[in-house]
Amino acid sequence: MSSVDLSTTLGNAWFPAPIFTASGCASSGRELSQFFDLHSIGGVVTKSVMSKARHGRPTPRMAETPSGMLNSIGLQGPGIDAFLEKDIPFLLEKKARIIVSIAGETVEEYSTLARKLRGVSGISAIEVNISCPNVENRGLVFACDPEASRRVIDGVRRTIGGELPIIAKLSPDVTDLVHIAKGVVEAGADALALINTVLGMVINVETMRPQLANKTGGLSGPAIRPIAVRAIYQVHAALPKVPILGMGGVASGRDAFEMIIAGASGVSVGTASFGNPNAIPVIQNELRDLLAAKGFTSLREAIGYAHRIEVSDGE
Amino acid sequence: MSAINKNAQQIAAAVVSNKKVGQYHQLIVNIGDAANHCKPGNFVAINVGGDTSRMVLRRAFAISRVSANSISGGTMELIVAPHGQGSSWLCSQNEGAILDVVVPLGTAFGIPTEPVQVLLVGGGYGSAPLFGLAEVLNARGCRVDMLLGASTASKIYAPMEGKRSVNSLRIYTEDGSMGQAGRVTDPIKALIDDMNIAVIYSCGPMAMLSAIDSLTRGTDVIHQCAVEESMACGIGICMTCVLPTMGADGNVSMLRSCIDGPVMDGETVLWDKVGKAL
């Protein structure tokens, strides 16, 4: 095995390895732990948890698309209390590093969730999933509204204090991603998660109606990877000091490396785990080998490498 | 708490044989020691399309039978209809091809501790896992009667050797091209009334399972059904294959058919809520 320092940081949280699960793609972590040691990867980003238990949306919730899939789960989950009681102890027992993802329908709900997490030990960071409809503003998704995005992050930051890093997860379905990224960083986000799924639709040509019960769904998988790489590159160029957790269709070490050199400090893997339960450790090993092959001795040297300034060869 | 099948593992498995049986393919796949852990009702999730595939999701197939002592090591039998791109790819894999398989997955049919009378009901290719189940029930001393149904004769899967494990086999086709004309659920009410059936095992389309449930609900007959919902992962992490259920405690929840199923107690499924919001 090649010796490359794979450690990385997101805000003040340190991780010995750079590959993470993606929120909503690892359930509680129990299932994947049957296939690999959760301690061996960067960490587990939990499924976005809300204040109360939710049944989620009706089926069909999924449609496969070329090199990707659409999903519309509707944030099915146990609610924050059951989550803290059952899921966190399991992850701690497995020595997993934990990033808790939270989601809300109002600015206040996000703050309430942050308050519940404030005293919980063993959490490395909070991911704030703002790709949720804001019930106080006609269901407009927070992440598509610069002002609402800021207010959510501001509320969480005030509640949580200065200790736990806040990772704001942004949607690519916006006109000016850099503007929204700057807003949430000013409001107190320590890091950014880029990107959430891309809104899409599949129509079933037999029934001649939308395939998903919810009509629209989030597109994930390799189909969206170039969008993610573009988003990471643009945001890193504008905010080079803000760490980025990159994600969107990563299915190999090569894909993870692409995001790292675009500017990501860590990479989450989601849909690839559906196709291969061992995708995360495989990708992490491939990334290590690729970094070594390219002559990097640490992951940190490679972050944002695609942005390097051309040096003239002195002719 | 519901949990992933504790024996689930990802293996590289070689195709031993691939035979066309009517409209289906019978694939025998070498899964080695994993065969010892497969029970009737369990399923496998297989990568399709090879390394350059644009199909990113696994395909789930019921294991119809396992053989732990075959010459080539433990094998499993899959009955696959080349229906979509993924299953067509699988049906094109010949002897020696290596498949990326996660096995075994999901729950298994409960086997009675006493040699009771049981009825097996299969719809279309859903009948495949019932033959392996029949062997186990037969060995337990159960009287096993089987009903198979499909829209037309070519969609009936009933291998000759499978008939050895059943006391009787009746076939129904909607167009009357094989067996009796009608639906496989037509005779069930009379069979429940006339015979001392303790358990009905069913596998097939959701509409068939729901129809059987309406006949067994409120009776002493236990209905063990293998449900069919589209899945993205098969291992419990994608949350797409959920079914609305009500537990013994009266709590309503969306359970994953890949982890809490595919075999479920029919009475726990809220059939009229499938595909609807809870």
Overview of this protein structure:
The complex is a heterodimer of chains A (315) and B (278). With 315 residues, chain A is an alpha/beta fold. Chain A has ten helices and 18 strands. In chain A, helix 3 packs parallel to helix 4, helix 6 (225-238) runs parallel beside helix 7 (253-262) and helix 7 (253-262) crosses helix 9 (279-293). Chain A is globular. Chain B folds into two domains: 9-105, Translation factors (Elongation Factor Tu (Ef-tu), domain 3); 117-273, Rossmann fold, CATH 3.40.50. Helices cover 13% and strands 33% of the residues of chain B. In chain B, the strands form three sheets. In chain B, strands 4-3-7-1-2-6-5 form a seven-stranded antiparallel sheet. Classes of the chains: A alpha/beta (315), B mainly beta (278). At the A-B interface, helix 1, strand 6 and helix 8 of A face strand 14 and strand 15 of B.
Could you say which overall geometry of chain A the principal axes of the C-alpha atoms support? globular
What level of helicity do the residues of chain B show?
Answer: 10-25%
CATH superfamily of chain A: Aldolase class I
Just name the CATH architecture of chain A. Alpha-Beta Barrel
Looking at CATH, the homologous superfamily of the largest domain in chain B is Nucleotide-binding domain of ferredoxin-NADP reductase (FNR) module
What is the mean pLDDT of chain B?
A: 93
Oligomer: heterodimer
Task: Provide a quick synopsis of the model.
The complex is a heterodimer of chains A (315) and B (278). Chain A has 315 residues and is an alpha/beta fold.
Describe the SSE topology.
The complex is a heterodimer of chains A (315) and B (278).
Chain A: E1 8-10, E2 13-15, E3 19-21, H1 30-33, E4 44-45, E5 62-65, E6 68-71, H2 80-93, E7 98-102, H3 107-118, E8 123-129, E9 133-134, E10 140-141, H4 146-160, E11 166-169, H5 177-186, E12 191-194, E13 198-201, E14 203-204, E15 209-210, E16 216-220, H6 225-238, E17 244-246, H7 253-262, E18 266-269, H8 271-275, H9 279-293, H10 299-302
Parallel strand pairs in A: 3-18, 4-7, 7-8, 8-11, 11-12, 12-17, 17-18
Antiparallel strand pairs in A: 1-2, 5-6, 6-16, 9-10, 13-16, 14-15
Helix pairs in contact in A: 3-4, 4-5, 5-6, 6-7, 7-9
Chain B: E1 9-21, E2 24-30, E3 43-46, E4 59-62, E5 65-67, E6 75-80, H1 85-91, E7 98-105, E8 117-123, H2 128-139, E9 143-150, E10 168-173, E11 180-181, H3 188-194, E12 197-203, H4 206-216, E13 222-226, E14 242-246, E15 252-256, E16 263-265
Parallel strand pairs in B: 8-9, 8-12, 9-10, 10-11, 12-13
Antiparallel strand pairs in B: 1-2, 1-7, 2-6, 3-4, 3-7, 5-6, 13-16, 14-15
